[in-house]
Amino acid sequence: MAPDPLGEGFRGSAVIAAPLSLRRRRADDGAMERRLTAYQIDVLMERALRPGGGFLARRAAARLCRPEAIRQSDSGLVEQLVRILRSAPDPHIAAQAARTLADPRVSGDPELLASTFVAMINRSGYRGGANAELGVRVLDFLLGPPAGETRLESFLGAAHPRSDWWTSPETVSFWFVKEACATRDNTVRARAGAFLSGTAEPHLLSALERVVLFDICKTFYLPALHTLPPGWEWQPLWSGGELSPRLRLHLANPRLPLRPPHGPSKFGPLEACAGPLLAVLSQREDLIADYLAVHGPEPTVSALLKGAAESSGRAGFAADCRSALCGLPAGPAREELCRHAARWGSEVGQSIVRETGWVWDGDEASFCWFTEQWERYDALDPDGARLRVFGLTRKDDRELFRRAERIAEENGRPNPLPPPPPFPKRTPPSPSPWQGGSWPTSPGASYGGGF
After folding, report:
1. Which residues pair with 242 in a beta bridge?
2. Residue 34 domain-assigned?
3. Per-residue DSSP letters for 35-97?
4. Does residue 23 carry a pLDDT above 50?
5. Lowest-confidence segment of 30-34, 234-238, 401-405 by average pLDDT
6. How is residue 247 annotated by DSSP?
7. Is 59 among the domain residues?
8. Residue 136 contacts residue 175 (beta carbons within 8 Å)
């Protein structure tokens, strides 16, 4: 018989049935005798994951699924147990791995617990691997125990000695949200969705909020000045009239959307660009005032104008954005809307200022010209004198003069403004004493010339 690579004691049942006193004596004599090597772990894994399962597979799993072995092993045994949890054909072996990972001697060790989550993230194809399913077994482990705080929430809320990217609460929460929305298993998607819809864990709420903000930026072509973790793919907010899974989860959680935080924020540009639209989607128009106070009127009004011009979104969404614009408070917010209507020719902005009668703080006649309110303009400036004075104060603004020309041509009216000023002529560079021909063929070339 060929020698067993796992050692003589493994073939029999002496090791399993050995009394506690004998095992303690062996541990005192030398712990190295019980420490599994990388080669032994590989052999045991091959047996534990054997398709037929059976007695040998369970015995190999029993050797691997020992908390003492995990605490003493430095060969990645935690990662192998996560592999058993996900892939073992025998459900009894997978349950044994789950019990071992949940054992207080393993889960109570911050280092081992962090290694468990790193292995789960890697095994779930976080970087775009083929095996990108969350899986029922992993979900059972993360959302257990049945009563009290789940293991996922405990991990996210605890302080971890490891500060690497893989074990940060932000990475783990983003990973869970991604897997919960991307899995093809209906059971897993329903359970994970029900958990996210009712969770109050701050990191999970933040992750769910920010992925929806990113999807809003991509859907409306807003400047998304933030990069999500690798392996992430954006989803359109709606397709064929149906909302995306992420947006449905977000809208189902009563604690979302979050109020924009005051002060510097890592995700401030993302919140400023997409936050007002998320407030409208969530029927929380009261948050518009918070976005105006935190991020100012420019990104808030620009986002609402984008939403009001959207024709393929959810029914009533464009009308809600327009209603939010009509409810802007007097001051910088209305001034920004008037600037968009006059300066950039926003159709939604022009219809709102015509309906409400708002004007900017500058010359009213000029504002009526650029928003094409001809009756009011003809009454205020019949000879165009006020518009010409307005143009003189902005004679360097070529875009303003071009816009005035386009408005006059489209409406068949004379343009009171003069033609736009020409571009300034560029002064030719002075000849350099070192300038010569092309080295080495030109006789006029010198050191540095021709390059």
Report:
1. 239
2. yes
3. PPPHHHHHHHHHHHT-TT--HHHHHHHHHHS-HHHHHH--S-HHHHHHHHHHH-SSHHHHHHH
4. no
5. 30-34
6. H
7. yes
8. no
Q: Tokens 């009394």 identify what position?
A: 19
> What gap in Å lies between CA 347 and CA 337, rounded to an integer?
11
What residue type is 309 in one-letter code? A
Which residues does residue 238 pair with via DSSP β-bridges, in sequence order? 243
325 has a pLDDT exceeding 70: yes
Find, among 49, 77, 47, the residue nearest to 65 by Cα.
77
Distance CA 386, CA 388 (A): 5
Classify residue 37: in a domain, yes or no. Answer: yes
21-25, 423-427, 432-436: which has the minimum mean pLDDT? 21-25
Give the span between the Cα atoms of 188 and 183, in whole angstroms. 7
- Go through 76-111 and write b for each residue having 16 or more CB atoms within 10 A of its CB, e for each that does not: ebbbbbbbbbbbbebeebbbbbbebbebeebbebee
Domain hosting residue 41, numbered range = 1-108
Q: What is the largest CA-CA distance in the chain?
A: 111
The angle formed by the CA atoms of residues 280, 286 and 288, to the nearest 5 degrees, is: 65
Rounded-to-integer distance, Cα 361 and Cα 146, Å: 62
Measured from the Cβ of residue 9, the count of other Cβ atoms closer than 10 Å reads: 15
| Residue 135 pLDDT exceeds 50 | yes
- Structural domain count of the chain: 1
- What Å distances lie between residue 370 and 241, 304, 376, CA to CA? 36, 21, 12
- Specify the amino acid at residue 237: L
181 domain-assigned: no
pTM for this entry: 0.78
pLDDT digit string, tens, across residues 242-263: 889 899 999 999 999 999 988 7
What local confidence, expressed as pLDDT, does residue 27 receive?
46
* Model confidence pLDDT, tens digit, residues 376-385: 999 999 999 9
Instruction: Determine the Cα–Cα distance for residues 377 and 281; give it in Å rounded to an integer.
Output: 37
pLDDT above 70 as % of the chain: 79
For the residues 7-21, what does the mean pLDDT come to?
A: 43
Q: How far is CA 19 from CA 24, 26, 34, 325, in A?
A: 9, 11, 15, 77
Q: Which pair of tokens denotes residue 266?
A: 């890592």
Measuring CA to CA, which residue among 155, 118, 10 is closest to residue 69?
A: 10
DSSP assignment, residue 241?
T
Contact 246, 197 (CB under 8 A): no
